[in-house]
Amino acid sequence: MKNQAESNSSATRILSQTAEVDAASVQPFPASQKIFVAGSQADIRVPMREISLDDTPTDFGGEVNAPVRVYDTSGPYTDPAVDIDVRRGLPDVRSAWIEARADTELLGANSSGFTRQRLDDAKLAHLRFDHARAPRRARAGANVTQMHYARKGIITPEMEFIAIRENMSLQQARELGVLDQQHPGDAFGAAIPEEITPEFVRQEVARGRAIIPANINHPELEPMIIGRNFLVKINGNIGNSALGSSIEEEVEKLTWGTRWGADTVMDLSTGKNIHETREWIIRNAHVPIGTVPIYQALEKVGGVAEDLTWDIFRDTLIEQAEQGVDYFTIHAGVLLRYVPLTAKRVTGIVSRGGSIMAKWCLAHHRESFLYTHFEDICDIMKAYDVSFSLGDGLRPGAIADANDEAQFGELETLGELTKIAWKHDVQTMIEGPGHVPMHLIKENMDKQLRECGEAPFYTLGPLTTDIAPGYDHITSGIGAAMIGWYGCAMLCYVTPKEHLGLPNKEDVKEGIITYKIAAHAADLAKGHPGAQLRDNALSKARFEFRWEDQFNLGLDPDTARAYHDETLPKESAKVAHFCSMCGPKFCSMKITQEVRDYAKGQEAAAAESGEQLVTMVDVEAEMREKARQFREQGAEIYHKV
Ligand SMILES: C[C@H]1O[C@@H](n2cnc3c(N)ncnc32)[C@H](O)[C@@H]1O
Ligand SMILES: Cc1ncc(COP(=O)(O)O)c(N)n1
Ligand code: SF4
Ligand SMILES: [Zn+2]
Question: Which GO CC annotations does the UniProt entry carry (predicted)?
């Protein structure tokens, strides 16, 4: 793979002719089929992955195991019916829905001066994406946010798509009887319904408790939702830096990251050709894309924070909104009076956006233009439906700095800004820390819910200790699982390279899998309906020594299979009742099976002789349980589908 410097120097290499999709990102998942669940109109087709399972071996009962449907973030890349060409971009999902609302117009030209300048620059021809879309904007006076429609009582196709997606065929699973055991969970006051309906999605968006990041200029997007009463989501960060990476590598990180489960992706590029890199990313992204516009604005003023102006920033917002960015991180809560509160911190201000704004504020001795122009920013957001991700510019970057006055002062300001954004019907989530020891995490969640009127929280980790550089996906995965359980709606991943360097494609996968684990562990602990289905199926496959099913039901089948095969590569080992951990004589699950077989034989003999025995099965308890299940299912027959 070429780096940026190399690809710039090769005059013959024209990206719009040569770029190729990453081959690994378009492989089908093993034993999986891409299926689409239909909505109320033909063009609402909700993707899911269906994993088919082997029958249970006859010595375990010989039953058929129903296929398991899982949430699918991999998009058209794993759809055999779609011919992927990254030079053309992805198929259109939403344009007809957007047009049908009749409140937007296609523009004859881009509204951003910077965009027009880039398009006119002949020197950029070799980097340009050839199939840019004509920009769309709200008609004069119109507000095109999902929150605005929700508050008017309108259920959009996006909302219906999301309801089907979040339910993940839970209803079908219940009918098949595969969800016969799930722990109730403890959701700390979240209000997760038994079934997600389009009307529930609308209500949550209307009251600001959930957001649907979906810019009208990003019609390739498969709608998803971020909110405490929905499945916990994860974000993966990508993007170049001054010291490395190319457009192709970044598109590769995008497709690789969403393959493994990224629900949204942030392009945090700060290096060369930020505009062109983003164009390639968005046109090839079926997930929402977030950015931090102040990074590119700083690039435009040569990296001198004091030289930033509202005009440059405003043009950058419009430039990015017309490309299709779905959410903007805006560090508008960094107020002058909070900056001195960071003076005694161990690591000061670790947020890039936060440090840039702190510098500007001190240099001008004024509140930042992000704060003073906040309502002007709202006006731009609602003309394209870009969501706010209010940045935590003063988050702690060290365990010692957690939950300090600067951090919590900023959070209070973010609460005030949330209310202003909501006045404009602009969708809003709030960014959170950072480096926080476990016992101080819950206070972050509780304060955020209180200050920000339950707007979704979106946290970086948190990292629960500072002592493991090289393993910060783990130090932060621990905190992410905890805060997800407490009610955080989206977990921003941290890769093993955190604090050390720019993550590559492998780091992206490592970070995503770690965060899928954290998010799912949180869903389970919250008692999210249906969350335990996949666990139950995997545990059953494990106990029945269905090795292929155990691999295929996992988050990373490739690694699971490779680890198993490292010591027992032969095909015959795939039916063995042991693995190389304990070997055939010490396999506890095998011995359990022998205990059960033995007990069965004993019980039969005792029944004949009339002798009293300790039995494996409490017959009366079984009957009571069956009666309870029957009552429960009976109630569900009348549940509206
Ligand atoms: C806010 C967080 O964003 C991440 N971050 C910042 N820039 C990039 C990039 N180009 N690629 C991936 N992650 C990035 C870091 O992990 C940081 O902690
Ligand atoms: C969860 C999350 N992700 C990304 C950023 C942006 O980075 P920065 O604040 O360093 O500019 C952030 N503040 N919070
Ligand atoms: S990750 Fe590296 S460049 Fe970024 S703040 Fe830390 S030390 Fe500085
Ligand atoms: Zn850090």
Answer: cytosol
Delimiting residues of CATH 3.20.20.540 domain(s) in the chain: 157-532
CA atoms within 13 A on the CB side of 398: 9
Query: What's the pLDDT tens digit per position in 197-243?
Result: 999 999 999 999 999 999 999 999 999 999 999 999 999 999 999 99
Binding-site residue numbers for [4Fe-4S] cluster are 579, 582, 587
Q: Could you give the CA distance from residue 641 to residue 637 in angstroms, rounded to a whole number?
A: 10
Joined together, the tokens standing for residue 67 give 């296929």
**Cα 300–chain centre separation:** 30
Closest protein CA for atom 6 of ligand 3: 499
- Strands in 68-71's sheet, in edge-to-edge order, are 32-38, 45-51, 68-71
- The residues with which 226 forms a beta bridge, in sequence order, are 211
CA 14 / ligand 1 centre spacing (Å)? 28
Superfamily of domain 157-532: Radical SAM ThiC family, central domain (3.20.20.540)
In this predicted model, what pLDDT tens digit does every residue of 293-307 receive, in sequence order?
Answer: 999 999 999 999 999
Nearest partner of 419 among 462, 390, 459, 384, judged by Cα: 390
C-beta of residue 162 within 8 angstroms of C-beta of residue 225 = yes
Question: How many angstroms is it from 501 CA to the middle of ligand 3?
Answer: 8
Asked whether the predicted pLDDT for residue 635 surpasses 70, the reply is no
Confidence check: pLDDT of 374 > 60: yes
φ, ψ for residue 34 (rounded to 5)? -85, 125
Whole-angstrom Cα distance, residue 600 to residue 228? Answer: 47
Distance of CA 171 to the CA centre of its chain: 24
Beta carbons within 10 angstroms of residue 499's beta carbon? 13
Model's pTM, two decimal places? 0.94
pLDDT in tens, 65-115: 999 999 999 999 999 999 999 999 999 999 999 999 999 999 999 999 999
Contact 256, 22 (CB under 8 A): yes
Q: Are 438 and 462 in contact (CB under 8 A)?
A: no
What gap in Å lies between CA 538 and CA 478, rounded to an integer?
23
> According to the 3-state scheme, what is the secondary structure of 76-145?
HHHCCCCCCCCCCCCCCCCHHHHHHCCCEEECCCCCCHHHHHHHHCHHHHHHCCCCCCCCEEECCCCCCC
* Location of structure tokens 């997606």: 165
CB-CB contact of 420 with 460 (8 Å):
no
